[in-house]
Design a protein that fits this description.
Length: about 260
């Protein structure tokens, strides 16, 4: 992949690069900075100082944010996950406890984890006695997940792009009890993915979504889903439950049960 060798005046890395499919691994931004190079002197607004090269890459509108979003490719994440000091971000005990109480205790054992990254969430679910397959479109992430969690079963990891690839053969109609989508739904073609999840789930299956709520982010970043988009997720499901993962409501979880109304 061509490194992100253009530095953007007046904006922090967190403001211009969209959030990943999973919470950022420890030392992730250090790896990004290695590609971007040292910071430069703050300047005027982002589009105003865009170089001609950036403008060409951004298209006629000169939208640098859209240009940077192109680096959500598998190659971009491969480079990030290749950094020697990248390791999984810890998952709060309370979060897995909430998942266990609201989902795992009443659902069947077959689970897929979409956008699994380094596999930490998938591993935690497997420790609850669930049979988990974690998917990610970064081969480097999947290889790392396999290495990190090879002693934790029943747990497997596969490379897959849910937007671009054909649906895996074993994801047949009513073949899955839980589809877990943690900090990744805003990266996917949402209507298509949810329609696919409906088909994969058993009649009483659960689509479990964890996402940032854009309007509630205290650092000012508009990441994740908007509040209206979170509420819209309830449409067409027999049961809808929602709970906050953190005390400030920045991160919320949605439990959608029974895809057939």
């Amino acid at each position: 992949m061509t490194p992100l060798d253009k530095r953007v005046p007046g904006r922090t890395l967190a403001a211009i690069i969209p959030p990943p499919a999973q919470p950022l691994p420890v030392n992730f931004w250090r790896a990004v900075r290695r590609q971007l190079g040292p910071p430069i002197r703050p300047g005027p607004s982002l589009p105003a100082l865009a170089s001609p090269g950036w403008r060409r890459r951004a298209g006629a509108g000169g939208n640098l944010v859209n240009t940077l979003r192109q680096h959500r490719s598998a190659t971009f994440w491969d480079d990030m996950y290749s950094a020697p000091d990248i390791r999984p971000a810890p998952i709060p005990r309370a979060e897995i406890g909430q998942f266990q109480d609201r989902v795992a205790a009443s659902a069947g054992p077959a689970v897929i984890d979409v956008g699994t990254g380094l596999g930490e969430w998938a591993c935690r679910m497997s420790k609850l006695g669930l049979t988990v397959t974690g998917y990610d479109y970064s081969p480097v992430a999947i290889e790392s997940a396999r290495r990190l969690h090879h002693n934790h079963g029943p747990l497997t990891f596969e490379v897959h792009d849910f937007d671009a690839d054909a649906i895996p053969r074993h994801l047949q109609r009513e073949s899955v009890d839980v589809v877990s989508c943690r900090h990744v739904l805003h990266f996917l073609e949402r209507p298509r993915f949810i329609a696919d999840a409906r088909r994969w789930l058993h009649k009483n299956g659960v689509l479990h979504i964890t996402t940032a709520v854009a309007e509630k982010m205290r650092d000012g970043r508009h990441v994740g889903l908007r509040e209206a988009e979170v509420r819209e997720l309830a449409r067409g499901w027999r049961e809808y439950d929602r709970y906050d993962v953190d005390p400030h409501g920045e991160i919320t979880a949605v439990v959608l049960r029974g895809p057939y109304t």
